UniProtKB/TrEMBL annotation:
Keywords: Transferase. This is Adenylyltransferase AadA C-terminal domain-containing protein. SUPFAM superfamilies: Nucleotidyltransferase. Pfam families: AadA_C (PF13427). GO terms for molecular function: transferase activity. It comes from Streptomyces wuyuanensis.
Length: 257
């Protein structure tokens, strides 16, 4: 068992077999990271993966991977629509020096692979190194170095002023989902800034509830309680919650100093 969902485990098993066949000798291992690795995955989570390779996919291997990811969402079932991850070469996956290298990336709910740095982050490396679930291959700690806490803190300090601006171009603030995602993202960044570690969405919200000023507890409680509403394009933010979120953003960004 990799997760608590039998359907997802079956998908991951077949997916790992397929990419191993496609990549051949360049396949090193396949791993789950993200919320499922942190023990917090639920039906509102995507399942994040990293496939480690000796070299970045190219040529026929890249073409076959593109066909695979175009086909997976057409299969029946729930989890075929909710996988996300990247194909990372072991050299750039190893440590900080590999940051900035684009990896072949499957975005949540998308069928077309792109070259992107989405998963090439200290955040991903920390989760992999400390909590990654091995689907196939050597222990992930053999492939990923420890992430220095101060390096993670510095990355979060740089990210704080960009959180709100980075969300706007791809997620509408007219949606309740975006309001909740924004608050949660700030909490995760603040948690990493404070601890030099990475928490799940729920874990970061609970930490914020305990450690930030009590005035923010109603907002944090609303975000936690409303997670079950999921993503709904017709679901607007609760009255007043967006203004509270913008105020929380100002408060959170003050920690960058």
């Amino acid at each position: 068992m990799f997760t608590r969902f039998a359907e997802l485990d079956t998908l991951l098993t077949g997916f790992t077999r397929a990419v191993r066949d496609i990549l051949g000798d360049t396949f090193v291992g396949a791993y789950v990271q993200g919320s499922f690795a942190l023990g917090a995955g639920d039906v509102h989570s995507d399942c994040d993966f990293i496939v480690a390779t000796t070299e970045l996919p190219q040529g026929e291997a890249e073409s076959q991977l593109r066909r695979l990811h175009d086909e997976i969402p057409t299969r029946p079932g729930f989890w075929t629509q909710h996988v996300e991850g990247s194909y990372a070469d072991t050299a750039s996956l190893r440590g900080i020096d590999g940051l900035g290298v684009p990896w072949l990336f499957c975005d949540h709910g998308h069928r077309q692979l792109i070259w992107d740095t989405h998963c090439n982050s200290l955040h991903t490396r920390w989760i992999l190194r400390n909590h990654g679930i091995t689907l196939a291959g050597p222990p992930i700690a053999d492939l990923v170095d420890e992430v220095p806490p101060d390096a993670l803190r510095e990355a979060m300090r740089a990210e704080l002023p960009e959180v709100l601006r980075s969300i706007g171009p791809w997620a509408s603030f007219d949606l309740a989902w975006t309001q909740r995602y924004t608050v949660t993202t700030y909490c995760r960044v603040l948690y990493s800034l404070a601890t030099g570690k990475v928490a799940s969405k729920r874990g970061a919200l609970e930490w914020a509830y305990r450690n930030l000023e009590p005035t923010w507890r109603p907002l944090l409680t609303q975000v936690m309680d409303d997670r079950g509403r999921g993503w709904d394009p017709d679901d607007p933010p609760r009255p007043g919650s967006l203004d509270a979120t913008y105020a929380f953003a100002v408060y959170a960004e003050s920690f960058a100093d």
